[in-house]
Amino acid sequence: MSTPSQPDPRADQAVFSDDKLLASHEAILGPQPDEKGKYRLLPLNLLFIFSSMIFFGGTYLGRYSGYFDARVFNEGAMPPSANVAAAPVDPVVAGKKLYAIPGACVTCHQPNGAGLPGAFPTLVNSEWVTGSEERLVRIVLHGVAGPIKVAGVDYNSAMPGFGPGGGFNWSDDKVAAVITYIRQEWGNKAGPVTTEKVAAIRAQEAARKTPWTSVELEKLP
Amino acid sequence: MSNAQTNAAPAEVTAIDTQARGPLLLLLGSGLVWLAVSGVLALITAIQLHSPQFLADCFLFTHGRAQALRETAFVYGWLANAGLGLALWVLGRLGGEPLRGLNWVVVGTLAWNLGVTCGLIGIAVGDTTTFALLQMPRYVQPFLVFSYATLSIAGVLAWSGRRADAMYASQWYAVAAIFLFPWLLMAAQAVLLWWPVRGVVQPIAAGWYAQSVWSLWLAPLALAILYYVLPKVTGRTLPTYDWAPLGFWTLIFVGTWTGGRHLIGGPVPAWIPTIAVVAHSLVLFHYLVVALNCRGLLAASGTGVGFMRFGLVAYVLFGALEFLASFRGIAAHAQFTFIEPALQQLGLYGALSMIFFGGIYYAVPRLTNRAWASGSLIGGHRALVMTGIVISILALIVAGKAQGGALLDPKVSFADLFDRVRGPLLAHTAAQAVLLAANLLLLVNFLRSACCFGGSTEAAPALFRTSATEEAHAS
Amino acid sequence: MKNGPLLFTGLFLALLISFGGLVLGSHGQLGRMAPYFDDGDGTAFPQRVSGLAARGQLVYADLGCASCHTQQVRRPDFGSDKARGWGERQSVARDYIHQARPQIGAARIGPDLTNLGGRQKSEEALFALLHEGSARHPGYKFLFETRDVAGEASPRAVKVAGAAAGRETVPTERARALVAYLLSLNTAYDYPEAKPFVPVAKPAEAKK
Fold first, then answer.
1. Given an 8 Å threshold on Cβ–Cβ distance, is B62 in contact with C95?
2. Chain C residues within an 8 Å CB radius of B269
3. How far is A154 from chain C (nearest CA, A)?
């Protein structure tokens, strides 16, 4: 074996022994002969590399972390501010949804607002809808029962209330929304009703427990 | 002549190797068998990619389950067994004392392989957990923790009973892998299987686990054997060894934070993928340290060294490409495409498996006190496996690029997309077939070398003739 | 490095920090996320799906559909998800809170399925696809059973070419659950955190 030509592929030759491997490498990590201090300073090139990586990482983190907020799914965005007012909900859109809830308005007054002849009054061109706010808000809040004349037709049934005491117990926002909706839908051209108005009427009629009658409502302006 | 050889300590087969021979060969052999099994499964899944109706009628091998089976067999069968076998050997060698607790290693190997087999059967019949790299059913998982613990006893004893107080880099990496894996497996099981977290936190936890399996378990196992073999073969200390501790701690502390890159653009808070990008930029330092320390491999010669050279280049390339892929600009093109499995193939096969092959080629002659049975099988394995890996990765990248371009264009239907990727996927299947053939060559060679099935017809190399004579003289 | 206990402490600390930060941190942020109550509709979103659909998700999971399909819509400027009709907005964490095992997926060999229930309404088409498959999609014949026609043919029977007379192929319980799940996939509600982010032109305004 004087001339190692091609090394035999069936076994690799080792040069270091295990002890020499351990000792020689530990010597690199341990104190060097020309070192005097207790601590070894970080080599300058290592410092450079580490610093640039940390700088890059830190800048990236600062710019794209979204402040670690759970509501930020887009890395460029900022977390939603607590002071931002909630976007105003369009009452017509909200009222349309409320109208369509099964068991609320649409069941009796139908999706086209025409009601059921003989049973449920129409809302289209109805003076009760486009006319007095006072009457309409009370109708929605507490319901109306007994004989009532709507657009020249007589009806005699019962409408439940959607305000206090009723099954739906809608807030002022919702009552105002649905009223605003029906007042501008299907050709009706009356103005919106505000939440404050509904609140005022609700407070005024706080003692009311039974549905209104047509006679009582007509006494109102 | 023999004196000169003794001074150079050629094979240095000592009592450490002869005592550990049975259990460690069992570990390495099991790994190679699992490699062949996962090779068959990889071939099946590759075929299903371009011919989806292949084996579609068989509920055991529908594509989703076949992918889970392949991944589990590869990682928990091949990489686990081979990595642990080599890590235990390195710890024994560097500890300087014969390994203790070897009976536990045999028990652990059999138990672990039994657990993985049960796990695979469970996945095939549909009890999969659906989390990447944690696919084995719930009922098998505690058993896996137990078997791993028995396996690691020998490693812990070898480390705690070491002769020299100082620790070499291989020991840090091996100890880290052996110590950390049961903890991260238990943590993942806790938040995903036993007390599952809610909603989208599950994929976040699963991503953390999958990344930890790479950064805290598999990569350290590979680096342990890499750092050991290189100076042994070149006879020189590592050039920038004083940076090695920092490279180690960077991988350990920062590596696990990089998993979030797979969740980019997903239904998770933006800080998770952002932290992954930052962590990737920091962990580049680890890859730099490994590249600088192991650059001696590029000039060294030897069988095992050749595989490790390929593995080292793949490892560093993997780190760089993962860093690039973590950016949103690139992820917009590469996410959800075949580029992801291409990167996975580069990391798990190109880097880790090749390093383990190198380790096996280096270690087995010392464990058996006999050279490998056939040099031509070694050459065949090397040619086939390198060709297979390169072609499969390139094919997947080509397919991924086509897929990425097609996905970004809303006018391209999935029918058109399929036509565009079909060609590269056929090349990928061919590459998987080549890899399976390579694995079988290695398995045959291993069985002949380790178990004396059909002894070597070629003359044993001088290395082992001499040392065998030395042992005879010494005793 | 000589110090054994220091090594172990460091290793354990590294694991603890990353687990604590990523997993426990996300859990703290998202783990107790509640459904969002809409005043206008009077319901909380996301709405729960039927039991059959919930079981269908388990079928989806164990068949490994997530290996080819994602269930996460990316935002409009990140890919062509919106242009392909896969979703009007990106998926957010709240979309997944009722799912036992979210299958967000990692590969798009097939289309994204987050809002499949909004696009695809036909049970027959899905049963046919699951039974036959196509050149691009595997068929899952083991999800169906062939049996004798008892009285009337089942409305859910799939058409099989060359079927024997008096025999029909119907979906099993698992197939029905899977299809119910697929048809229930719909994340149409606009949560406040899902509002599309429009970058402001001047950085000063963003700070308001």
1. no
2. 26, 29-30, 93
3. 33
Of B5, B241, B243, the CB nearest to A25: B241
pLDDT in tens, A37-58: 667 777 788 888 888 988 998 8
Q: How many CB atoms lie within 10 A of CB B237?
A: 17
What is the least distance, in Å, from the CA of B447 to any CA of chain A? 14
Distance, C-alpha B213 to centroid of its chain: 10
Each residue of B108-162: pLDDT tens digit? 999 999 999 999 999 999 999 999 999 999 999 999 999 999 998 888 888 888 8
Q: How far is it, in rounded angstroms, from Cα B76 to Cα B116?
A: 7
The partner residues of C169 in beta bridges, in order of sequence, read: C146, C158
Distance from CA of B357 to the nearest CA of C (A): 27
**With contacts defined as CB-CB under 8 Å, which chain A residues touch C40?**
89, 94, 97-98
**CA atoms within a 13 Å half-sphere pointing along the CA-CB vector of B213:** 23
Q: What length is written for chain A? A: 221
Q: Look at A50 and B285 and tell me if their CB atoms are within 8 Å.
A: yes
Q: Considering the entire predicted model, what is its pTM?
A: 0.84
Comparing alpha-carbon positions, the chain C residue that sits nearest to A177 is C40
C36 forms bridges with which residues in the sheet? C45
State the Cα–Cα distance between residues B344 and B318, nearest whole angstrom.
Answer: 9
Q: Phi and psi dihedrals of C43, rounded to 5?
A: -130, 165
Helices and strands (DSSP H and E) totals, chain C:
7, 4
Contact state of C22 with B128 under an 8 Å Cβ cutoff: no
C-alpha separations of A164 from A141, A170, A202, B260, B446 in Å: 7, 7, 9, 51, 85
Minimum-distance CB partner of C108 among B198, B262, B336: B336
Chains that touch C (3 or more CB pairs under 8 A): A, B
**Cα separation, B250 vs A182, whole angstroms:** 67
C27 CB neighbours in chain B (<8 A) are 191, 197-198, 201
**B20-79 pLDDT per residue, tens:** 899 999 999 999 999 999 999 999 999 999 999 999 889 999 999 999 999 999 999 999
Query: How confident is residue B471, by pLDDT bands cut at 50, 70 and 90?
Result: very low
DSSP-assigned states of every residue in B176-238: HHHHHHHHHHHHHHIIIIISPPPTTHHHHHHHHHHHHIIIIIIHHHHHHHHHHHHHHHH-S--
